[in-house]
Each structure stands twice: as C-alpha cells, then as structure tokens.
C-alpha cells in the first residue's frame, strides 16, 4: 500500500486534480492527473502520467460532494494500492492574513470564508471541496495554498492604488491571482538556470493574467484587488474605467448584484462576441463579433505585456501558459506580432507545432510555451506544511 496525496484545483467549471505518491525522496511523484467537470453532468476524466486514458465516465449529481466522493473512491478502490494521507487545495484568496500555505483547521476555514467579499464567486467555490472532504474523511489532513501568495513580493508603487492612504490600510491593494501557476513556472525557469531573466508569464485560461517576475519573485501582475482586473477574460471584463461603474450604478438602474453578474459572468470574450467565452468556439466561428472579441483579447494582452516590460526595465523571456497560452497558435502569434518593436520574432512553424520555444534564434526575447502544473505545487506545499508537524 502506497501513501498518496490528492491536489485539488477547483475552478469555475471543473476540479482539476493530481494524485501524488509520497515516498522518501521529498518530491511528490505524479501518479495520475485529471479533472471532474462540475458545470454540467459531472464527468470524471483521469489520465496516467504517460497520458493514457484511465477513466472517462459520468459520476453522480451536479454536486461537489458527489464529485469528491467519486474521486476518493476511484483513488482508493480502483486506482490500486493507494491510501490517501492528505489533500491539498488551491484557495483563491488569502487576504492580508495568509501568505503561506496552511493546515486547514476549522478556525482557518472560517477565516477564509469571511474573505468571500474579496472574491465573491471564487472563494466559496474553492472552499466547498474542503468541507466536502472534511465530511467524507474527517481525519485527512488538508492544506490550503493561496493564489494570492506568490504576489506578496510586489512592492510599492506596483502594489498601490492612487486612493487616499487610509484605504490601503484597510486592505485595498493589489493582491494578484494565479499565484500557484506562476510559482510553478518560476520553479521551472529556476531549474533551467534562467531565474535571472526579466520574464513576463502570460497565464491565459478562462481567467487570464500576466506576471512580471525575476529571480523567482513576482514584481507586478495585471490582476489587482479582485480577479476582475487586467486582461480580457472568458466572461470577465478586465481593466475598465471605474467611471463606467459609477455611471451604471447612478444612472442606468444597475444594482450591485447585477453589476457583479455583468462584470464576472457576462463580459469578456462572451460579452464582446455575444457567442461564447470559450476561445476554441471563437476561433472556429466565422461571425465578425467573434473575430473582434479575439482581436480585443490579443490587443489588451500585448498592451499589458508591454506595461509589465516597463516594470521589469526590459524583457528577456515571454512565457505562454494555461489553456489558451498553451494551445492557441493564433493568439500567441497575434500578441507577438504586436510586440515586434520589443525585438520579439517568432517562428511560425514552431508556433503552429506548439514547440517549447517558439521564438527565432535572432529574437531578442525568448518566447516559450510551458504547460502549467498548479497541482504539483499544491502537493509540494502539502508535504512542506505537514513536515512541520
Ligand atoms: P481555467 O483553468 O481558467 O478554467 P484553462 O486553462 O483550462 O482554463 O483554459 C481554458 C481556455 O483555453 C478556454 O478558452 C479554451 O477555449 C482555451 N483552449 C483550450 N484548448 C484550446 C485550443 N486548442 N485552441 C484554442 N483555445 C483553447
């Protein structure tokens, strides 16, 4: 019987997960990876380390507890000879209190739940599996890892808003998100001896953001106090003139709840295209509004990459990651084309093939695709936290 830990990365439409064997060596060994879709009829999909399909079947109802139950049963009863000794979670917001991974005791979970106003849709969603697992396996040690934590190294002025100082003291500041993904990329670059490069990482998924990093530290990021800021996203608006929000509230009959719905669920690629928030759908569509939505996504990403190059004082490396970053040659090409003036030049054939390095040898910026792995970062943190006890 081997000891294994489960990493859960709960998103808006799925729970991505990894199963890790824990040996003597310290580094968790990936045993399987997969996802449970939670938006429609839940479906458990698991792949082996080599990428072979291990499971692809419907499970239970549209309910997080059912999904977790199915997953735990699969690991312990079907996957074979594994005993779960722990579970790690991606938690969206650690607020000003939590910047390091923590053991999820009931008072800690209470404190995290109180942070829901900081990430109204994402925080409750990321805590739901913690409760489900606690019901199912009350003795399992659970660890929370925060998407905000990697950005705690952002200093003034990058982390500040131009509001009266009292607001900063009340916690109104740039937190930034997607930290587990950026931490993985930073560890990958460090392993290659490239941590000293001035690097912008473009995490382009349903949620999308950029991180300016050097020496393994975040120096700036496009998401801010909330996960609404920065790039155009699947259904979120990204940076928007705050005057628009005032206007809608004061003169357009908008309530705070409706505004939240508009900005988080009905804007971004979905709002602009009127078709879908999913990049694959838009790339396949012939509708001019779909094309305009993709163009706006690309335009804003290029503009923000240039802004972060300014924070870094130049750019040596641009990394694309997450669903769109790893798989959309069109988006990568569009962004790099707009940034030629920075000395970026990409190889069209390599970009189409999704090569690990898509820039030409003459490019003054190395452009790379690095598939992210938030789940292994969670597993590493679980081991580090539990090792302290
Ligand atoms: P999240 O984890 O934020 O839910 P992902 O990182 O899985 O999101 O990214 C989802 C996005 O990636 C969707 O917009 C999807 O259309 C896009 N995507 C995935 N594969 C491709 C592809 N082959 N071409 C273009 N876009 C893709």
Describe the structure in brief.
With 389 residues, the protein is an alpha/beta fold.
Give me some keywords for this one.
Nucleotidyltransferase, domain 5, 14 helices, alpha/beta, 389 residues, binds adenosine-5'-diphosphate, 8-stranded mixed beta sheet, 2 domains
What secondary-structure arrangement, pairings included, does this model have?
Elements (H helix, E strand, L loop, with lengths): L1 E9 L3 E8 L7 E9 L5 E6 L4 E6 L5 H16 L2 E10 L10 E2 L2 H8 L8 H15 L4 E6 L18 H5 L9 H13 L7 E6 L3 E7 L2 E5 L20 H10 L4 H10 L2 H6 L5 H6 L3 H25 L4 E5 H6 L1 H10 L9 H5 L13 E4 L4 H14 L2
Parallel strand pairs: 1-6, 6-8, 9-12, 12-13
Antiparallel strand pairs: 1-2, 2-3, 3-4, 4-5, 7-8, 9-10, 10-11
Helix pairs in contact: 1-3, 5-14, 10-12
